[in-house]
Amino acid sequence: MEKVHEYLLAFKPEAKSWFDHQKLVVEDFAFFKEFSKRENLEKAEWQDFQKIGDHLNCFRRLGIARGNALGKH
To answer: For the chain, does the N or the C end have fewer beta carbons within 10 angstroms?
Structure first.
């Protein structure tokens, strides 16, 4: 765990610049922040859950896993 802390400290000075250039990271974070709000979860329908596949790299990279987990949309 100490190594992770060491790497995070090394990344800290570059973090803002890196995240400023990571469009998907920012968009995905915003999606999950909005998606996870109680009022949104209470009214969510299956199509809303399928949108998760647009915001997780594992599903963006492996369409068959996305289809198996979330169905076709």
So the answer is: N
- What distance in Å separates the CA atoms of residue 24 and residue 30, rounded to the nearest whole number? 10
Residue 28 to residue 54: CA distance in whole angstroms? 8
Q: Quickly list DSSP for 7-68.
A: HHHHHHHHHHHHHHT-HHHHHHHHHHHHHTSHHHHHH--HHHHHGGGGS-HHHHH-HHHHHH
Q: Write b or e for each residue in 7-18: b if 16 or more Cβ atoms lie within 10 A of its Cβ, otherwise e.
A: eeeeeeeeeeee
pTM of the model as a whole: 0.64
- Cα 35 to Cα 9: distance, rounded to the nearest angstrom: 30
Average pLDDT in the 27-33 region? Answer: 94
